[in-house]
Design brief:
The protein is an alpha+beta fold. The chain folds into 2 domains: about 70 residues, Winged helix-like DNA-binding domain superfamily/Winged helix DNA-binding domain (Arc Repressor Mutant, subunit A), CATH 1.10.10; about 55 residues, 2-Layer Sandwich (Dna Ligase, domain 1), CATH 3.30.1490.190. Helices cover about 40% and strands about 20% of the residues. The chain is built from 5 helices and 6 strands; from the N terminus they run αβααββββαβα. The strands form 2 sheets. The protein has a 3-stranded antiparallel sheet with strand order 1-3-2. α1 crosses α3 and α2 packs across α3. The radius of gyration is 17 Å and the shape is flat. The protein binds zinc ion (2 copies). The site of one zinc ion has 6 residues, from loops.
Length: about 130
């Protein structure tokens, strides 16, 4: 069994923390460095790959060309603010019925989907109105 690494423990802690659920490797690396003083980018990358392989986290494509990760918990969609870029969870699945329609129109067996809504978050909306 592999020796437990402080980096991978820290990465797990970050994913378990409340308040934020999406992380890019860059952001994880930055936070790990802040917490531990120093950490190799490649060590963080390996820790993240390991968690992904174990099915604890999954990749999310937000269409910005970066890879983001989140904890593999219940399926949910995402919405991104056009102004500040904040990405928030949309609880539950809005596409359950659509999967059947997609399956019957394409002949594919649908295994997953990713959906990203765009909009303006409440903070940015109230700032615009102020
Ligand atoms: Zn915003
Ligand atoms: Zn999410």
């Amino acid at each position: 069994m592999a020796r437990p690494s402080p980096v991978s423990d820290q990465v797990k802690t970050l994913f378990a923390a409340e308040g934020r659920h999406l992380w890019s490797i860059d952001e994880l690396h930055e936070s790990v460095v802040q917490a531990l003083g120093a950490a190799d980018y490649s060590t963080v990358f390996r820790a993240v790959s390991g968690l992904e392989r174990d099915g604890l986290i999954k990749r999310i494509d937000l269409g910005d060309g970066k890879v983001h990760y989140e904890v593999s918990d219940e399926h949910h969609e995402h919405i991104r603010c056009d102004v500040c870029g904040r990405v928030v969870e949309v609880p539950g699945c809005v596409l359950e019925d659509a999967s059947f329609a997609v399956a019957s129109s394409t002949g594919f067996k649908v295994t997953s989907h990713q959906l990203l809504f765009s909009g303006i978050c409440p903070d940015c909306e109230s700032a615009r109105q102020a």
